Amino acid sequence: MKVCLNVMRVCLIFAIVIGFSAGSFAQKKVSITIDDVPNSMLYKSEGFRSRLLHMIDSMKLPVAIFINEVRIFDVEEADKALNLFDEWLASPNVIIGNHGYQHRMYSKEGIDSFQIDVLQGEAITSPLAKRYGKGENYYRFPYNDLGKDAAQHKQAADFLKSRSYIITPYTVHSDDWLVTQLYEYYKSHGRGKDAERIGKTFIDFTLKNFDYIESITDQKLGRNVSQIYLMHDNLLNADYLDELLTALMKRGYSFITLDEAMKDPVYKQQDYYEQRFGVSWVYRWIKDEKLRMQLMRAAPDSEAFEKELSQLKK
Ligand SMILES: [Zn+2]
Question: What domain range is 98 assigned to?
Answer without folding.
Answer: 27-313
